[in-house]
Amino acid sequence: MTVAQLAQFSNYAIASATGVLALAFVAYVAQWSFARGVVPDRELVSAGSAGAADADQPGAERSSMAGGIGFSLTALAAVILFAGVLTRGLAAERVPWGNMYEFGCAAILVALTSYIVLVRVWSIDWVGPIITGFGTVVLGLSMLVYVPAGPLVPALHSYWLVIHVLGAMIAGSSFLVGAAASVLYLIKARAERNTPEDERSGFLWSIPDSARIDQIAYRVHAFAFPIWTFAALIAGPIWAQYSWGRYWGWDPKEVWAFITWVVYAGYLHARATAGWKGKSAAIVALIGFGCFIFNFVGINLFVAGLHSYAK
């Protein structure tokens, strides 16, 4: 295939992956909807299986089927997106994350891969609607800042591009999973406080209890934080020294990377030393994810600075 054909194939693949991921989101929403009135099997729920219920109950079989379809479509979207990201790199003859469009596509690929792995490890398919919905939005919005495949600007010609941005994507995908778990924790914890035992039916009650969700959120953030530390505060400054002749210059993107680091450091420190759990910790985690998103979107589009070429 020629470079032009590779670029065209990449565009079609990424657009197709966006459509498939949107269908996965619809399937996950249907899973929640079909489970209305279904009383979950408490033993299966305690094992972490989303949608766990007696198959004889009306809606339980349809809910389980919709969940399976949602996961299969998510995996298919990841495969198609991988093909799109790979051919984008081949067309540009470099790593495919040199601008905002490419970073968005590659980051969602990493996020979907992380989600699929964690479903197998921790059975976190209950965050599927949030992951697929967020991924669909990011891929759709990334097309609004699309740029043709081409060479990098001189400042990006360094192997630190691979290290710095790849680390940021891995950390960001984990932050996304942690944020999704934090959102569901807040919803589930409130429901546990306000819903009588005899009224606890539906998909919300087929996911793990709030304490288990809170634990998973903490573990994911604890994994992501060292990677973000390396990507933002070690690899980033080294790359800046290579590109601009200084390690740190308080560029807007550098400042917000540091702010994001401080928020997540505060979250983990508070949990480890002050015993923070529950609502307060979940809110701080969501603030941290908001800082991460603003650093990626807001700084690039509205503030610029030395990182303006990332558009």
UniProtKB/TrEMBL annotation:
The chain crosses the membrane at residues 12-30, 66-87, 99-119, 126-147, 159-187, 222-242, 254-270, 282-306. The keyword Transit peptide does not apply. Keywords: Cytochrome c-type biogenesis, Membrane, Transmembrane, Transmembrane helix. Coiled coil: none annotated. It is a multi-pass membrane protein. The keyword Transmembrane applies. It is found in: Membrane. Residues 97-307 form the Cytochrome c assembly protein domain. This is Cytochrome c-type biogenesis protein CcsB. It comes from Aeromicrobium panaciterrae.
